[in-house]
UniProtKB/TrEMBL annotation:
Pfam family name, one: DUF3493
Annotated protein name in UniProt: Protein LOW PSII ACCUMULATION 1, chloroplastic
Keywords, alphabetical: Membrane, Transmembrane, Transmembrane helix
InterPro entries referenced in this protein's UniProt entry, alphabetically: LPA1-like (IPR021883)
Gene that encodes it: LOC100835810
Amino acid sequence: MAVPVRLIPSPPTVCLSTPLLSLPPIARKPSPSSSCSGSSRARPGFRCSAANKPSPPPPEVSSSNSSSNSMAKIRSEVLSPFRSVRMFFYLAFMASAGLGSLIALTQLVPALTNPARLAGAAETLRGLGIDVAAVAVFAFLYSRDRKASDAQVARLTREENLSRLKLRVGAGGRVVPLGELRGSARLVIVAGPAEFVEESFRRSKPFLKDLMDRGVLVLPFPTDGNTPALQFDGEAEEGENEGDGIGEKSKRLWQLTPVYTSEWAKWLEEQKKLANVAPDSPVYLSLRMDGRVRGSGVGYPPWQAFVAQLPLVKGMWSGFLDGMDGRV
């Protein structure tokens, strides 16, 4: 017998013409401080950068300046080890005399207003005068040492900046900072027009061997942008062997070439300004074995004076006279 099947009707379906919750679209406004190059989708090779913020200086520039200043202060302490001690005692004596002056003033004012204590006012006034004079003297001594220290640190900072300038050793050789020549060579910088460099080269030829024995190396720096014509080929002079000719000696003596000439020009311009020298004047600058500036001047380098005053690099006096390089 078949059982009848009863169908249960499904509930009616309700259609909503509007969503249950309607959210307004979020509008993204571009930030005024940032801008992106390329489309909104990230792509390799595209970079976002701040538009309203200045670019910070390269970290190596600021670190180089701070390093030069720190090294200059260290060298200043080595060259003048007792200056800091003197300045400390000057400050201590000034503080002591200033305290004495204050005490004398507190005793002098009541003595002048009280006739009974007027007899001791002369002694108090004498002590006040001594204290004031002591403050003035020690202030003068402290100011003099401070100015000398600042001038020495400024000079050593310029020397440290010079030691960081780049140069090339030989034709096609490696590029090294000037500071790497410390302890091995006495550098002479010849800066001026190409004709000035050529004439300096010609005047150095009679002293090539003597200059090389004293560890002198020459760095020609033409300031007019022209390349000086330095003729290294030459016949052997009278009394010289053919294998040790003038051309080979000239190449060894004049083997340095400045790199990044704009930095060299900037350093020389600052030196000329401090020395009250005209910017277009040809100059020379000689360094000691330890990198300190020995002397400088306007005109051609005194090669004969170098030979007469500089000690030999090799021999019994080498090393002992490295700090006594003469006046030039």
